[in-house]
Amino acid sequence: xxxxxxxxxxxxxDDKGKRIDKFLNELIEDATRSYIxxxxxxxxxxxxxxxxxxxxxxxxGKEVITVNIPEDEVLDLIPxxxxxxxIYEDSDIVVINKSPNLVVHPAHGNxxxxxxxALLYHVKDLSTINGVIRPGIxxxxxxxTSGVIVVAKNDEAHGRLSExxxxxxxxxxxxxxxxxxxxxxxxxxxxxxxRDPRDRKKMAVVQENGKNAISNYExxxxxxxxxxxxxxxxTGRTHQIRVHMKYxxxxxxxxxxxxxxxxxxxxxxxxxxxxxxxxxxKNTKMLAVADLPEDFKRAAKHVGxxxxxxxxxxxxxx
Length: 318
Known about the structure:
Layout: E1 3-10, H1 20-27, H2 33-41, E2 45-47, E3 50-52, E4 64-70, E5 86-89, E6 93-98, H3 115-122, E7 146-152, H4 155-167, E8 171-179, E9 186-196, E10 199-206, E11 211-222, E12 226-233, H5 240-247, E13 270-278, E14 285-289, H6 294-302
Parallel strand pairs: 7-13
Antiparallel strand pairs: 1-4, 2-3, 2-4, 5-6, 6-7, 8-12, 8-13, 9-10, 9-11, 11-12, 13-14
């Protein structure tokens, strides 16, 4: 079995008494419980340097745990008739407005119900650069973040789009609802982001061993206790906007990982609103705008924010 990566984590006092499979299921994003149990069964998990093979092992609360993640299985993914909101499509790319609660690609034993399964059903061709698990996928959004994603339909388009993301020549704009009122109504945040040393399940602003992360924010509207914020990111780190908003002491509404659960709000109110880029083969300027989902509109109305303050950006060609 080929090992893709090894993850070293520390259990703390709060984890005392937890089953190892439950602990790892909470830690490894998008993993199914059966996938966790499978890698334990295969001896890929070590506690204090000793391999374990029982999913029911209870933690004592101060262990060092090593998880060896195997390469993704090569298998036939099943196309699924999951509705897609297609913003734009031609022979090279397809631009999607991803709905919330949709994982972008299969991983860690979760091989159905993803954006990739939907793409395989609705789109004739997809690039092969990222293999059978992630066909066409150039970039991703968190499961509960909605909004614009560009997908490559051939390898030439994929390669050029990947280069744009690497060289940061695309402009990615998000909108979010956050808690509190900003003293500074706009600003630039530049920090390092890495694993939270106190909780490996989370990312955090760190002083060392992190990657440079840059976000530019602007407050669009305010109510009594909430703000509507536009964020343009210059980098694409894991959970970047969520971590930066928490860092500013304005966690995103509904973000139970970096803030608090909010009554009636089922996910973080973060939406990838637009992507401004150059078409990978036609070299024409493209502006893809993803309409706000209904739950975002309801949340804004509930906290007294005016979504019409989000500037109206026209889609390319309209």
